[in-house]
Design a protein that fits this description.
6 copies of one chain form a homohexamer.
Chain A: H1 3-13, H2 27-36, E1 41-44, H3 51-61, E2 66-70, H4 77-81, E3 82-87, E4 90-95, H5 97-104, E5 107-111, H6 121-127, E6 133-136, E7 141-144, E8 150-155, H7 168-171, E9 175-178, H8 184-195, H9 199-214, H10 226-237, H11 242-251, H12 258-271
Parallel strand pairs in A: 1-8, 1-9, 2-5, 5-8
Antiparallel strand pairs in A: 3-4, 6-7
Helix pairs in contact in A: 8-9, 8-10, 9-10, 9-12, 10-11, 11-12
């Protein structure tokens, strides 16, 4: 790969605009130190609390390209590494997302990594210890990671089963940072800005979310993430009545339990 | 793809005739707002309550092509995205239904999405957040969705098992709308019109369905959908005796439990 | 496909001789109405009660070709739709049985459909609602069903497990008809005619079957179907002693339980 | 296939020498009647009681070629039907054992058929009702069975689990015959002749087997078959001490349970 | 295959040096009789008691080539029979180990046969009854076994689960011989000779093993085999302190249970 | 393979710099004796206690190349042995990591071997007894191991399930050595040196780890390995506050249990 195509690829994965992100603690400083020491990082936290946005923010801040992969239970190591493609009767090697990140010195973000097949272990381990290598079996190549490469993984401790736990030998290769929903003030700011509505309504939506997140009844495994609040804000802005907007965007997506929906409905009625 | 072939394909998936649909609440307004904001939508409700018809109605109303996929437990992401076909000794790429929808700006409707294999996550996530992209691994292409594209999914909360629940990180990417059977007046209107029988008989069929839907005994996991009432109406119109038509079209399809069939039979006898 | 080859194929699947069938209720009228309205039909009933024969009878009566597929747990949608075959170094597309039925306007009978793999859903659904289409993924073709096509499925409520139940969203696409063993007079007539023995012996065989069908002890999940009575008749006609013929053709096939065999043996001894 | 090659193939599967078989009841007459009526036959009985030998005997007696397939849990329908083989860069179709039997009018014997994969249903059903056809999907051919073809299956009721039971819709397509170990006199005759030892020792071995077959203790799911007695006889003839021969050939193969082995050892000590 | 290449292959599998083996009973005589009668043999016994060595010894003694296959749960019949290989763009058939043994008249030893996939049944059965044939499906060849061929299998009754038991219809095709650890004198001789240490130390190691084999506590499913004693001897000879050698070579490999390790440690302390 | 390319490959896998390793007992002497006798070695111990570093150390000390493979549940024998690759339309054989090690006389280290698929048995067994061979099925080659080759495996007794236990017939082929965390003095030395911080802070980190390793409460299956202490040290050196560094690098990676995190937090507060 020439320097030119490498630069073009980096450009491709560069975050061009500053992602909107409000710091909630010293997570930026810890991540910067981890990145400076090239330590792999594990982000823990519930759905919709801003893990993905944080990684985008850090990639922008550190001026590094970002390669994101949403993991799932049918994702094999080969999906990360690459494959041979047939292009006009020729077989051409095509780097997978991880390989690209390793070559160009990107931050590679494996979202919900425990969901992936276990053969991903074989690529994670040598990239997260002093070897910093990636073996591409199918071409016989052994890549030494670009000095700027670092691996970031996320996972949600709330709904892991025993079967889907990370092995200790994998966990103990990462610095961990835990995330939670932003503080009310911050979240109001975010919802108002991204949902394009006034701060007052945004604050009410955040209050609603706060109450929902405190419910730990049967069936409600997780609270509403910030994204759902932004969805509600957008519906309101398009003239959907506020209660209906909250119901559609915040309550109904969370659970199918009718009793819980009633409870959630009461919360809406109390607020609006 | 030329503009011409794109237009032809859109034509292919356009709903030509206004689907018969009677509004039951403000679901049309909410969907229109969601579509205006390009928010992904999740339709929840029992079998046969009109979710599919509603999507057809909205596609017609918004004048968008509609691509429908019935999901099942052997449906892989690759079935949605596309594959290479052998045509006269040449390998030709053939877009899958989702890819087609993404290219032409259609509404893509994944019916009973929880049934599909979990690797569909990888296509759903980047299409339902600010990225709005679809990566076609096999060709190396990354599609940016047409501005008019939006994803709609349906699922039936009534018969989901723990194993087949949508992950929170997927759920919290959708506005949700819940559906139920139409109100008696509306349903009578529908059955009379689609089954081509008089309103009086139609009303009786709807009354029967209402009674059945109130039974929550062992084994009857769901009530009879509107389609079954229309089936009964059509049999009656073709001179099948009304009790027999109800039994064949409404009761027998619902359950194999003999006791329940007796109860259902009694309901018919009471009405006709 | 030319009109000529289509006609030839129809001829291939036509039932040439009137199948021997004795009506037991108004099942013929209901089926005719369902077919006139092109409603899909589900036949429910125990093994050997005549469901398959009934479909053959109706196909003959309606003068439609009949395509029958015995479903099993390794039957995939692709087995129904078709595949590419290698013929003298050429790949040739070969329609599967369902595709053939859809093209020529046949009755397609999926026997014991719950046994099949779940991806058959994807072919059943669009063929049983107002779309009436069959998508052939591998060739990219979307077939609109011939106006005379209709889908018929059968299944046996007696031995379905929870895992093998039809989904409500599939069930509620069919008119259902339930079948049981023919009444004694009818069955005697059938056994005498098909087994080529005198009515008196046939009547005794039917009495034996009636007694067996009333046993609902541990292990005897189903009674003896009419086919087994015909088998017994044929053995008797070939001079196998009557008790031995009953044991071999009627009792031994039903169960491996020794105690039950004794009970069945006593029933034979009482009768002959 | 020319008549000549067909004749050659039949010759291949013909039983040339009369298999040694001693009749124990009227099983020969029943089988002959079933064959005359071309009824499919199911042989039930414990391991080593002579089912396979009986089929060989009948094939010889009826002068029909015999094709035997030992079924197992990785046997698919395609293993029975045939496949394309690569021979010197040419793909050549090769009939599987069942297809060969269907073409030449052989008796096809599927030994322990419940062990096979369930897609074998699709080949068994149309060959065992009035259709008598075999569809070869891969070539698109539909074979009508030779008039002399008949299907025979065996299975052992002793060690079937619920999972491995034959479906009623399959069972009720066969005449059944049950087999047990031969009577002592007959078995002595067999062991003496096949094991090439004197009748007295043979009789003792049979007595031993009889005692073992009466034990129904924990772990001894089946008694010793006749083959093991013949093995013992052959070892004795080659000067292995009689007790040791019995232990090696009759007791040790049956079970790994040490207590049971002691019991079996006591039986040997009592007799020899 | 020419006689020359056959002879070369036999040479390849011939045991050239007399394997060191000390007879413990009349196992040699029984095996010789079984081989003379060409009866298949099953060797039962715990890990490391000398079954493999015994087969090597008998192969040497009978001057027959020996083909050994270690079975495992991913071993399919095709791994035994052979496959087509691509060699410089040509497909060449390559016999598997069993096929080679059948052709050249070797003893074929399937070690821990219950571990293999169940389709191995299809190759074992016709090779162990009067047919003595091996069908090579992929080439269409049916091999008649060389007159000197015989099949030997081993298995360890100690750790078989219900799922991994040999079927009775397979078991009852073999003469069985059971093995146990050698008597102390013999084992001392073996350890001293193979481990190259003095008889006194060897005797102590054997005493240790004897004590360990008598422990039947929770977790210790098997005792230490002779090989581990030889390992200990070799470490001692290379100046590892005797207690440490015993711990590393005899105790630690056996179990991960800490309490059991303490018990084993006490046994070492008592002896050395 | 020429001597030159072999030498180049050995160079590739040679450990160039002395890995930092502090001896904790006589593990070096035992390993040297085992290597001198070419006995296979099994390393047992918890995550992060230095097993991998020890192997690197020994490979450096013995001046042998080291080939390391991280095993996982989708690792098949073929991944170890090699495969055919398509390179510019040519199929070229590519040795897998084990094959390379066997050819060049390397130490081959299979990390967490129990995780791998069971067909690895077939490669492990003949390489760990007197045969010392590796059969490469796909090329038909049988490699005799280089005299300097030896196999080393590791596994962690702490989190093995019954399903993932090594079979006794595999275990009893290895000398075993058990590892634990280094003694406090040694570990302080290591952390100070590798984490580049003062000994006092390093000692405190080691004290923290010691306390954590003594907790055996619900959920904490393993203590913190030395690597995590080094991570903490590096963060501290980059000015992350010490408590935060400990939390991110030592506590959060270990467990998702909130109560345990509180306990771990208290331990930090007590120390710093």
């Amino acid at each position: 790969m020439t320097d030119g195509t490498m630069a073009a690829m980096r450009e491709c994965y560069r975050i061009r605009q500053a992602p909107y992100y409000l710091e909630t603690g010293d997570e930026v400083a810890v991540f910067e130190a981890a990145y400076a020491a090239r330590l792999p990082v594990m982000l823990k936290g519930p759905t919709g609390c801003g893990k993905t946005r944080f990684v985008e923010h850090m990639a922008y801040r550190l001026d590094r390209p970002l390669v994101t992969v949403a993991c799932h239970e049918d994702l094999f190591a080969s999906d990360l590494i690459g494959r041979y493609l047939l292009k006009r009767d020729e077989t051409v090697w095509e780097d997978g997302p991880l390989t690209r990140a390793v070559r160009m010195g990107a931050i590679c973000y494996l979202d919900e990594v425990v969901e992936a097949r276990k053969d991903t272990t074989v690529v994670i381990h040598p990239l997260t210890d002093n070897r910093r290598t990636l073996a591409i079996d199918k071409t016989g190549e052994v890549l030494i990671a670009h000095p700027d490469f670092v691996l970031v993984i996320s996972y949600n401790p709330g709904y892991q089963s025993v079967l889907k736990d990370l092995k200790q030998s994998t966990r103990q290769r990462f610095i961990a940072m835990d995330f939670d929903y932003p503080a009310p003030d911050l979240e109001t700011e975010i919802v108002s800005r991204e949902g394009e509505i006034d701060r007052e309504t945004a604050a009410k939506l955040v209050t609603l979310a706060g109450k929902i997140r405190n419910i730990r009844e049967h069936g409600l495994t997780e609270g509403a993430g910030t994204r759902l609040l932004i969805y509600a804000a957008r519906l309101i802005r398009l003239h959907v009545p506020v209660r209906e907007a909250c119901r559609s965007a915040v309550c109904l997506p969370l659970t199918d339990d009718e009793r819980l929906q009633e409870t959630l409905g009461d919360l809406i009625d109390d607020l609006f």
